Amino acid sequence: MNARRDKEMELALDLPAQRAERRDRPASAEACTDGELLQRIAVGDREAFDVLYRRFVRPVFALALRRLGDRGRAEDATQETFTSVWRSASSYRAERGAGAPWLYAVARNAIVDRARARTETPTEVPDEPSSEPGPADEAERSWVAWRVHRAMQDLPEHERPLLELAYWSGLSQSEIADFLNIPLGTVKTRTRSALSRLADALEELH
Amino acid sequence: MTREPDFNEIVGEEVSAEERERLHRAHDLLLAAGPMPELPPELEEPSLGKKPDRLEENVYQLLPRRRTGAALALAAAIALIAFVGGYTIGFRHDGFSSQYTVAMHGTAGLAASGEIKIGNRDSHGNWPLRVEVKGLPKLQQGYYEMFLTRGKHRWTCGTFAGGGNSTVKVRLTAPYTFQKDDGWIVTKQLFGHNAEGPTVLTT
Fold first, then answer.
1. Which of residues 59-78 of B touch A (CB under 8 A)?
2. CB neighbours of B187 closer than 8 A, spacing ≥ 6?
3. Do B135 and B113 meet the contact criterion of CB atoms below 8 Å apart?
4. The dihedral of CA A196, A202, B2, B6: what is its sign?
């Protein structure tokens, strides 16, 4: 919302230098795959970094928060992740796979580093087996969440909020229609369309 | 615990079995993934403070640029303030000195109303606003946001919570220069969502 507003304000400030910069730029970074963005970042393309940042910052932060359980440390881990991406994008090899799993590995390393920095040591080991999911389960759940959150970032602005409201805010279709002040039929159409796009994206993301 | 969405309500009946299965997989994955947390403001743009070394040429100065953009876009305008209704001079209330008052009314049959008292602009260009609204529903999962509007453009003047039976009184600030035909609106927003919410009050 804010980004849209800001863009509107910037339209009034379309300076000659900005127009020239747009003409000289190669193909829009927005249209690039994650892997192509990483390749462009490897040669210092800041626009590509900006686009990659917007695609992944929420999934990275969500992953960090899930693992670290603390917003401050999750924020630090997110910052470190993108610093690492900028510095080590040249180590990404497209032939080894898509960009999202590579970035997931970078994020996981940054989060592990941040977790290790924690000095708390348990004073007593519990006798009972934990009911918490084991490392393998947790890794699988984190990977699923990562893929879904990444795919959500690609949904159109007029569709993504509908899924968020339905799945993560617990609103019924009529409540969403009421909240967004749009017809119920529109809510249903857009939600189904968003779910379909998400299904497509999740089939592509590996 | 939020309510689990009804897959049948979302997908409907007129879907092939194959498509239904495909959508159901996405539905299950959405539930398994859980919500994305709201981003802290520090992460909304690539950070200046901890940005990568090679970014130190100050490309990502989006927040300052936004403020500059707002200031430049609006600075050329002349302060035409007589356009608003309910004009009063020298109004004082709770120590707040207002130059004039703008009335707002509910949209879509909502029995709500509001009043914006606009104070004296300070030397930095900030207009203090005293906002009083009544009749807005109390939001369980959201908040209200007030905007200055001009044609298709809108600029935020701040957010507030509250509603229900009591009158909400808050102080906000607008660093803008007003023009003839400017308007004000209040929208309702949901926590953690960037989607532009519906307008509930307008001038």
1. 59-60, 62, 65-66, 69-70, 72-73
2. B144, B145, B147, B196, B197, B198, B199, B200
3. yes
4. positive
CB contact under 8 A, B37 and A157: no
Per-residue pLDDT of chain A (206 residues; tens, 9 = 90+): 444 444 444 333 333 344 444 444 456 888 899 999 999 999 999 999 999 999 999 999 999 998 888 888 899 999 999 999 999 999 999 998 899 999 999 999 999 988 887 644 444 444 555 555 566 777 788 888 999 999 998 899 889 888 988 888 778 898 888 777 789 999 999 999 999 999 999 886 54
Q: Which chain B residues are Cβ-neighbours of A13 within 8 angstroms?
A: 69, 72-73
Q: Which residues contact A47 (CB under 8 A, 6 or more apart)?
A: A25, A29, A40
Token reading at B110: 């909502």
Which ipTM did the prediction report?
0.72
Of residues B44, B70, B142, nearest to A9 (C-beta): B70
